[in-house]
Amino acid sequence: MVDTDVLVVGAGPTGLMLANQLARRGVRPLIIDRHAGPSVQTRALGVQARTLEIYSKLGIVEQALELGKRATGANLWAQGRRAARIPLGDIGRDLSPYPFLLILGQDDNERILGDALRNQGITIQWNTELVDLEQRTDQVTAALKQAAGTIREVAAAWVAGCDGAHSAVRDLNRIAFRGAPYEHVFFVADTRASGPMVPGELNVYLWRKGFHLFFPMRGTDHWRVVGIVPPALRGREELTFDAVAPAVRDEAGAELSFQGCSWFSTYRIHHRRAERFRDRRCFLLGDAAHIHSPVGAQGMNTGLQDAYNLAWKLALVVSGRAGAALLDSYADERIPVARRLLSTTDRAFSLIVSDSWLAGLFRTRVLTRILSAAMSRDRIRKLAFRTISQTGIRYSNSPLSEQLAGLPAGAPHAGDRFPWLRLKLTADGPIEDLFEALDDTRFNLMVIGQPPPPADVSGLGDMLRVHAVPSDPVNHRTLSHAQIPQPSFYLLRPDGHVGLAGGRLEAEAVRRYVLERLQVGTDRARHQAEAGHELEDRRGAPSERSAVDRHADE
Ligand SMILES: Cc1cc2nc3c(=O)[nH]c(=O)nc-3n(C[C@H](O)[C@H](O)[C@H](O)COP(=O)(O)OP(=O)(O)OC[C@H]3O[C@@H](n4cnc5c(N)ncnc54)[C@H](O)[C@@H]3O)c2cc1C
Questions:
Q1: Closest by CA position to 35, among listed 52, 17, 11
Q2: Peptide bond into 230 cis (omega under 30)
Q3: What is the pLDDT of residues 75-96, one digit of tens each?
Q4: Can you give the pLDDT at residue 247?
Q5: At what angle do helices 299-318 and 523-538 cross, to 10 degrees?
Q6: pLDDT over 60 (residue 238)
Q7: Which label site among 71, 367, 374, 444 has the fewest CB atoms less than 10 Å from its CB?
Q8: pLDDT computed for residue 347 by the predictor
């Protein structure tokens, strides 16, 4: 007997995304947060293209675009002089419907995600802190401390630790968080400023001893400034922006003046990764699983993608349509992403913050030239976009990725996010945005250059949408540009990544893939479905059922 299918611990961006995605798939999670309400700190600022694609499926992309600012360019300043400008406006043209980086504060992202959750009828339980948990074979018992100090026990089938860098879910499961802090202390300030900065664009000041970033924020002359606390000020208690402002002015030039600062904070950055992302019925996502330097604006976005990866799998398992082994693929797929992220951000960060003489020279004399030359080349620009926007993440070595014969080297492969294409999806119909046509609450089968299968070859039933791409000159051009051969087929997972791919559509191979890899429709899944029927009856108000309230000191 459980009170909730999924207990989501933490209502930061990761927890909000997970709860939203579960709710869209018919699972009503219990989401708690130890704070009294949503965070009002901006923290992360960059929303990547892949996140916007996911926002679009959630119906919140328009709000995000309206509130945010598109980064049209990055201006690199070295020793007070503008050394280069990298155009960013449509850097990912043809690669994503959102070919840019959107500047939108974490607080706004959380607000939009919170509203979407409320619209699905799910309320966040604030002032509720996970303080203990016990894992059993068939459930987890979680002890939740409430505002008045009372402890409530909740039995959950699964627990998602979206509880940030100091994760209780991670600690209570004794999962090591390996890594180290960087020696530098950062400051972040929301300022009103005027000066040589190019308005509405990113301005990066590189100097011998470090760097300063100016992010344009909503409104006029509103800049988020990020930098390293000067060595002379490190360790000083109650540091204020007034103390670091002279160092910023020294580098940006005398024309820079600050008219005010509404938020100032310093923080020490760590690079750490949880040794495991799952312990039996508990999962770790977002900052609970990995933290790293803010280089490349990846942190919040990676947490959002962790949630998108886990949600569809958890929903299938909770509803008894797939075996629990499907959940192993969460860690199989997301640990390599975190590992790569930590190593790339670490290398880039070390270069940016190193105070060695050589690194200083490289930053101020060489880096700007290399970057502007490289970014003028189409191939490198596309590679940079794919990497930073997270649209290039692939799960090639995942147990869910299977490639059959018939696809050339340049074609999308098993594990890739299927490319964004504009195709005629019906004969004589309009050219459509494929991503709009894909249903991310189901699997999608793309059948290209061959007739669609006559019946449900997959065994997925109503969990599958078939898209037979008609023969048409527009489609031929688009497919050949994307190096997609005809005939070919792609079975896409709900998160848009290719599960099974090949040339000629083989019904038997698809059926085997669905049974063996996804474990959909297996006996084990059916047993779980039957056992889960007890749950079905009690779904709806998970927290109000058999939760036991008692005093913390009882
Ligand atoms: C000053 C600062 C600047 C940053 N700048 C950037 C940036 O520019 N770009 C970028 O990508 N990233 C940045 N980050 C990182 C980014 O903020 C995180 O990656 C992001 O917040 C991760 O989201 P999350 O939901 O995983 O965790 P969090 O946002 O930390 O949310 C965790 C939630 O869990 C709750 N919680 C914790 N413990 C419990 C418990 N026991 N019970 C119940 N609830 C609990 C917390 O109250 C919190 O609401 C910055 C971080 C900081 C601190």
A1: 11
A2: no
A3: 988 877 888 888 888 888 999 9
A4: 86
A5: 100
A6: yes
A7: 374
A8: 76
Nearest CA to ligand 1 atom 29: 12
Residue nearest to atom 33 of ligand 1 (CA): 10
In this structure, the strands spanning 150-161 and 282-284 are parallel
pLDDT at 232 exceeding the cut of 90: no
Question: What is the reported pLDDT for 551?
Answer: 31
In this prediction the pTM is 0.91
Q: How far, in Å, is the centroid of ligand 1 from the Cα of 111?
A: 14
State whether the beta carbon of 300 lies less than 6 angstroms from ligand 1.
yes
Check if 227 has its Cβ closer than 6 Å to any atom of ligand 1. Answer: no
Cβ atoms 271, 180 nearer than 8 A: yes
228 lines ligand 1 (CB under 6 A): no
Which CA distances in Å does 494 have to 159, 212, 309, 336, 337? 22, 40, 9, 20, 19
Distance 360 CA to ligand 1 centre (A): 31
- Count of CB atoms within 10 A of residue 43's CB? 18
Query: Does the Cβ of 518 fall within 6 Å of ligand 1?
Result: no
pLDDT at 352 over 90: no
Burial 517-546 (b: 16+ CB within 10 A, else e): bbbbbbeebeebbeebeebeeeeeebbeee
Give me the chain's average pLDDT, please.
88
Atom in ligand 1 nearest the alpha carbon of residue 131:
41
pLDDT digits (tens, 9 = 90+) for 424-459: 999 989 999 999 999 999 999 999 999 988 777 778
Least confident of 25-34, 179-188, 479-488, 504-513: 179-188
Query: pLDDT tier at 244 (50, 70, 90 boundaries)?
Result: very high
Pocket test of ligand 1: the residue of 106, 145, 182 to mutate, having most ligand atoms within 8 Å of its CB, is 106
Taking the C-alpha atoms of residue 160 and residue 288, their distance in angstroms, rounded to an integer, is: 10
Atom of ligand 1 nearest to the CA of 33: 44
- CA distance linking residue 360 with residue 48, whole number of Å: 29
**320 close to ligand 1 (CB < 6 Angstrom):** no
Q: Over 90: is that where the pLDDT of 191 sits?
A: yes
pLDDT digits (tens, 9 = 90+) for 538-550: 333 333 332 333 2
Residue 207, beta-bridge partner list: 210
Distance in Å, CA 165 to ligand 1 centroid:
7
Q: Is 446 helix (H, G, I), strand (E, B) or coil?
A: strand
Q: How far is CA 319 from CA 6, 28, 49, 391, 532, in A?
A: 12, 11, 31, 29, 7
- Taking alpha carbons only, the member of 337, 286, 300 closest to residue 51 is 300
The SS3 of residue 257 is: strand
> Is the CB–ligand 1 distance for residue 107 below 6 Å?
no
Element spanning 508, H or E: helix 507-516
Write the CB contacts of 98 (distance below 8 Å, at least 6 apart in sequence): 49, 52, 53, 56, 61, 92
Distance 44 CA to ligand 1 centre (A): 9
DSSP secondary-structure letter at 461? G
